[in-house]
Amino acid sequence: xxxxxxxxxxxxxxxxxxxxxxxxxxxxLDPVVDFLAxxxxxxxxxxxxxxxxxxxxxxxxxxxxxxxIELSKAMAAKLREKPGGEEIGVTIGDFSSTTVDGTxxxxxxxxxxxxxxxxxxxxxxxxxxxxxxxxxxxxxVVEVMVPELQRLGHGEMFVVFNAGEKHWGxxxxxxxxxxxxxxxxxxxxxxxxxxxxxxxxxxxxxxDLMAEVAGMRLRERWGGWQREPFTSExxxxxxxxxxx
Length: 244
Ligand SMILES: C[S@@+](CC[C@H](N)C(=O)[O-])C[C@H]1O[C@@H](n2cnc3c(N)ncnc32)[C@H](O)[C@@H]1O
Hints:
- It is a single chain.
- It is built from 6 helices and 11 strands.
- The protein is of the alpha/beta class.
- Strand 4 (104-109), helix 5 and strand 5 form a beta-alpha-beta unit.
- Helices cover 26% and strands 33% of the residues.
- The chain has helices at residues 10-19, 26-40, 56-61, 73-81, 120-133, 204-213, and strands at 44-48, 65-70, 89-92, 104-109, 134-145, 158-163, 167-174, 179-188, 191-199, 216-222, 236-243.
- It binds S-adenosylmethionine.
- S-adenosylmethionine binds at residues 6, 8, 49-51, 54-55, 69-72, 75, 94-96, 110-111, 113, 116-117.
């Protein structure tokens, strides 16, 4: 195991695609790729936390030139193994601070990955770095959950977000510090294994402020990739900021 891989080490990387199988369903993925391909146009796309290429590979298959930033060599190695994986450039590093060559039409960070940055400073730094990588009318897209504080009674800390035969997911909220730990209980070889991962949850308008500080403004906010309205009931949002 390589400690520099962070929480997505070899063991997690080996099971990632299987454990996130629902997210690879074309019914989920096609609208994501449609959305991003339209923003990329003839330009390049930059994925922060590219992982095993769940989004990058089908986006590249549409003819978009995709580059990724990824902390985990183990996750990047899984991407490389796949057909088309060799053609996608990956820079190993922290996406809150890593610089890559050239400019991009669109940068994106999906599947709650912005929350893997566990401080406000790191999340704000991510926005500044993205702005530096975007061309004149470039966009930044974030897909992230709406913090589920409405599901917590006063003083309560735990939200069960999945209760399946092979996986239980429980978020442990620390409201005072605007953070949470996601506890995943996965059935592996007949036994439940625990994997706990820290996150910083973040509010939509806090992201807007980070964008503004970085020289971007909100262009669109949706409740999903098919441009569903964002409402008080939305569980997550897809937000697009553009350079001012
Ligand atoms: C939930 S996975 C998402 C992977 C891929 N984007 C997807 O949608 O399937 C989060 C990915 O972000 C990477 N990651 C987490 N924090 C990171 C950071 N600070 N810098 C670069 N990559 C990071 C993890 O190693 C992991 O591959």
